[in-house]
Records
---
Amino acid sequence: MRYCVVKNCLSWKQADNLNIKYFRFPKNPDVKKKWIEACGKENVNAKTGTICSLHFTEDDWRLKDRLLNFPITKRLLDHDAVPTQLVHCNNILSINRSKRCEKRTAKKIVHEAIKEHDLRFANTLKLFCYIYLTLSLFF
């Protein structure tokens, strides 16, 4: 299984869902050095390591691939492309995680509101039953 060597990148966990492509380090020594620096790690194996497509901007893709609107999994990088996106953050997928947390919190709020409403409805129903029973005694 391939994985991205950029520090804290967990793209391998969602590679199928996000249409992520992995790229080997370039042979050009100057560009390779920039890739290694972008990884944010001390020991990067440039021979076997790969960097995922999440770390490249739209301008890093070959012009032909952009103009023909190729999917990311079919695109190729420019020869001088350097990973600049999301290279110095704590966790690439933290954005997705925070969205899930917000969704979970909203769900809890809705469930609590439904419970409250059910309790109020139940209390109202009890009151109506009490009134009905009380009135039925008089008629």
---
Amino acid sequence: MTTEAYLGIDGGGSQTRCILVDSTGNCLAQATSGPSNLNQVPQNILRQRLEALIDTCRTQCDQTVQIKSACLGLAGCGTDENHQRTSRLFKTLSHLGSASIQLKTDAEIALAGAFLGQPGMILIAGTGSICFAIDHFAHLYRTGGEGPFLGDLGSGTWIARQAIGRAQAPEASILRKIVCDHFKIDPQLKINQIELFNKYSNSEISALCFPICAAYTAGSQCVAPIIQAAADALHNLVLENYQKSNVQKLAFAGSLLTQTTPVRSLLEQRLADNLPQIQIYPAELSPLQGAVLNAYRHIHPQPNPAFIEKLKATFSHAPVQSVREKI
């Protein structure tokens, strides 16, 4: 017996996750692999990574599945050029067969999951940063998301780069120790920024933001300007988007905002003080669940509420298989 299935992929600068669900919303399989940001990962590697993820999910199932629809949400596909190149690549994914395929940005699937396809605004701050909104007329509004070299203000990568730059100052001994400990550098040696940025991926650089946050929480004044500036930058992304979209419902995504961090605490205070009309809501679904919901809605435009409830109920119970890549 063949089971009708729907596939979602959430690909960012740190990892890529894949989920396969049946027509009732029951989670059949999940898998995870390395990053898939189109500005960081060569297309040949991206293709192999996605094929391996989809194959892993299919082989986890104890039944034969036919993927009716797939939604792939990837960081970096917001530009027309990247979108066109990646659309062509997805048409060659053999494991999807005749499934209909949607290509979205990671922000779009996060927004779809947060508000179940209804109007709202999503602020993402993880490896990168972006603010995305959809209004009652289905118009989309974007602020930020320019990538690590042009912006991603307030993101983990931005915080890390600020810390690395400031750690060179003679008076920044505490900050220097944090940076050296994180990257296992001899503190007696000069920190070579170019060497660090060439040696480590954006996700590895971005991970420095968490010891920086911990130092702020512990009362270290040397990191305070960085954390406060990150909160200001994220506040400004929301402000700019609100001025264009007039959307007042906001949800958070990304590791800096879904965990308890000083960046989130400061941001919430700034929003309460300066934009009291913005109301913060918990996301209904994760970005990965948002991707598979998009896939399902492509075939069933008005999803049965039972599908969403089953997706919520079974998502956390399905084991996540890590893909061993041969790349």
